[in-house]
Amino acid sequence: MIEIKDLHKSFAEQDVLKGVNFVFDTGKTNLIIGQSGSGKSVLLKSMLGLFTPEKGTIEYDGKPYSSFNPEQKRDLRKEIGMLFQGGALFDSMTVEENVMFPLRMFKKGRKKDHLERVNEVLERVNLTGNGKKFPAEISGGMQKRVAIARAIVNKPKYLFCDEPNSGLDPKTATVIDNLIHELTVEYDITTVVITHDMNSVLEIGENIAFLKDGVLAWKGDKSEIFKTDNEAVTDFVYSSDLFKKVKQAQLQGL
Ligand SMILES: Nc1ncnc2c1ncn2[C@@H]1O[C@H](COP(=O)(O)OP(=O)(O)OP(=O)(O)O)[C@@H](O)[C@H]1O
């Protein structure tokens, strides 16, 4: 569980986060949604320790990040799997080498054991037999699955995903969403996903933080998001055609 309490972050004259409170639950896919510029990435980067908030706390399983010494911060970093926007694979490395990278960085052990773990996670994301290929030789959806395998190879307690579906067709995006959700439940991970994708909200929105201008304007889950009359949320979500259709069907009792 990650708990955010009264988090404030500013840059020069601009207040970006203005007292955000939220609990990201363990074993759930927790989503951060909101318009461009609402502070989603600043929140995630603050959680990663890349930004220092002026006020408020970020607690990892009850322990405030600000109280960690450098060694504890390093240990926490080992427990965070990160899925970057666009996948961010190393083009000059094979799939196997990409997935092995965090193991070699953070874990001692023999290459043979590392390889065993790499093959285990590649099998889990349905990429058995693709280890010797280079990223350019596989599809965008497969590249995302490699990035997921790399993010979970160290058995993280926390998984942070920044726009995991960007650049994917809707069907592949759903496969990726469901894979993230399955792994979250299977490994009991606290997963945090930044997304603009309304399909993702419908598929895996178990605990949603809606940010508007640096404030938590609404929280709830995928069924509640249809029922709320919070204007900021409805403005945002009903700009999506998919949501309009679902809402219409709901009103017609379908
Ligand atoms: N390092 C920085 N220095 C100064 N201002 C920043 C910095 N990072 C973000 N900001 C500002 O903070 C605000 C929120 O940015 P943020 O990237 O969190 O938005 P976002 O909700 O993630 O948007 P998007 O959906 O477009 O990625 C923006 O106005 C941005 O310009």
From TrEMBL:
<dbReference type="GO" id="GO:0005524">
    <property type="term" value="F:ATP binding"/>
</dbReference>
<dbReference type="InterPro" id="IPR003439">
    <property type="entry name" value="ABC_transporter-like_ATP-bd"/>
</dbReference>
<dbReference type="InterPro" id="IPR017871">
    <property type="entry name" value="ABC_transporter-like_CS"/>
</dbReference>
<dbReference type="Pfam" id="PF00005">
    <property type="entry name" value="ABC_tran"/>
</dbReference>
<feature type="domain" description="ABC transporter">
    <location>
        <begin position="2"/>
        <end position="238"/>
    </location>
</feature>
<keyword id="KW-0813">Transport</keyword>
<dbReference type="InterPro" id="IPR003593">
    <property type="entry name" value="AAA+_ATPase"/>
</dbReference>
<keyword id="KW-0547">Nucleotide-binding</keyword>
<dbReference type="InterPro" id="IPR027417">
    <property type="entry name" value="P-loop_NTPase"/>
</dbReference>
<keyword id="KW-0067">ATP-binding</keyword>
<protein>
    <submittedName>
        <fullName>ATP-binding cassette domain-containing protein</fullName>
    </submittedName>
</protein>
